[in-house]
Every structure is written in C-alpha cells, then in structure tokens.
Amino acid sequence: MRLEGPIGVVGAGSWGTTLAQLLAEKGYRVDLWAYEKELVEAINDLHENSLYLPGVRLSENITAHNDIEPVTKNHTLLVMVVPSHVYRGVAQSMVRFLNQPAMVVSATKGIENETLLTMSGVWDDLLMPGNSVQVLALSGPSFAREVADHMPTAVALACDDLDTARSVQHIFSTVNFRVYTNRDKVGVELAGALKNIIALAAGVSDGLGFGYNTRAALITRGLAEITRLGVKLGANPLTFSGLSGVGDLLLTCTGDLSRNRKVGLQLGQGRKLQEILAEMRMVAEGVKTTKSAYFLAKRMNVEMPICQKVYEVLYQDKEPQTAVRELMERELKQEVEFHRELPPDAPRE
Prior knowledge:
The chain is an alpha/beta fold.
C-alpha cells in the first residue's frame, strides 16, 4: 500500500524523530510536531534533532511544526509518540482537527496514572461513539538510535482490524525495519508498558552488584507477572512470548541504551529518584507506569510482587536491598500457572 498525502508524527523525542525519519526515507512527506520551538527551527533549518537524536541527518521530507493543527488536519495517518503523562492533553488538542476516516498509530509505551488506561484506551475515552478513527499500537524491541542507524529491527503492530494493520504494516516496513501484525492490542500495549518496570528492577539488581542469575530470574518472573495481569485484562498469553513481550523485555532489561535500566542502576547504587530524574532530558516511562501497574494490579486482584517492590522503592523510599530480601523470602510457590480455568476432571500436577 502506498499512502497518498503526508503523514503526521506527533512528538519529536528520539523515537518520534526516528519514526519520522524512517517514513521520510521511504519517500513520504512527514509533518512532525515538536513541543520545543527551538527544536522546530533546528529541524527545519539544520535538518538535525540535536536534543534527542544528535548526529543523524534528517530528511528534507520532514517539516517540523510547533502548532498541532498542520500536523493533524487532512492527515489520514498519524503517529503518536509523546510521553504517557502528556498523551491525553496532546490527543485532546488533536481531536477537532482529526480527519475521518483516519488511522492513529500509538508508539507510546505507558499506562495513564489517573485512569489506568492504555494509550489506545485514552483515544477510546476521547473519541465520540461511531467515529471512524482506527487506533493501532506499535511496540517491540526497538532502541531509537539503532533504528536510526539502520540496524535490523523487528516490531509488532496491533489493531482490532487486521486489514488496517496489514495496510500500515506495509507503510512502515523497510529492509531494516520488519513489522509483524497482531490482533491483540491489549496484550501488545500492556507488554510494552509493563516491561519498563522489570527493566527498573533489573537495573537495581545490577546496581546492587548482583549477577546474571539474578537478572535472569527477574526477567523470567517479571514476564510471568506481566502475563498474569495481561490475561486477566483479556490479552492472549501468546502475545507475551512475542516481540512486544519477551523481545522488548530482554532488550530493555539488558541493553545499555535503556533509560529505565539506567534509572534502576542508579537507584541500586544508592541515589534518590528525584535527583536521578532531575538530570534526565528524556522520559523513563517505567517510573510513572509503576504507579499505574501497582494500582491496576490491586484493582484486578492480580499478584505482581516485583512490580510491587519497585513501587515501594520508587514511591515509599524502601531500600532496594530490603526489597530484594522480601522478594526472596516470600511464601514458596509453584512455577507454572494455568491461564484459563480447567475442567474439574482435567489432570493437574
């Protein structure tokens, strides 16, 4: 499929700029919304995003804007890449300019603190019933810098309507950026958001000086509790063994480019959260998502011990070493859990 007309990309952080560049290199005209006025000028005049993606020469097919209207109006395809805590406000400013029909690809990995909604859930909350806007979710193991440097990458694109997903799949796919479709939007969004919490825990583990055994345990048991919550919310358990699940989890828990792992690393080394965040220009989504996950797990009556301990470290000033000890001293459990209720006569352990 070849889309006619420009594509709007909302958010000029490292990932938003990278996706804009990917689409522009395919020959699409891209209107890119940036919050910072000086960044708009730099992108248009110097063809570089020196704040979030320094050293990458941006295509002349990209035009940056500080106003949301020219990025939204008369655009059939929009890509949302703003932090979760401002997502609703930016989306609200776009609603009156939205083309209908339209497709919105959400590439933000987070859960709203106030409502505990995923980003597609925020759109569902804002749009009038009967609208003709299709919301998709793009997620997977994809550090922006590596995609910008044309390193082979594979991601998942989820939509309720598979035909729409296939159309957008072809728009984004390149020789170095492979897109797989998925109909489980709930699972893809939850996996992408919740893995950041486990990455914080993995960083704490590394900061405390623990080894590969500890990190492997955190990743494995973290995946178990992500899956547990996802299935309770209607996701397909197989989604969590895919790119947006275990793929993104492995990347974010082990990669040196992971902002969430870096925050956890410094927490494990004894630094306080506020001083760490004060030094960061880019957002570590896991910090806010931890709060959402903690209350969502309580609402759904789902046990998520790692997420709970990360919450206590971040928001209740619990010492990381204490959190680790409490995790290890919990009541002993069986490892494998059934994700659906079995018939009474089904064989169990």
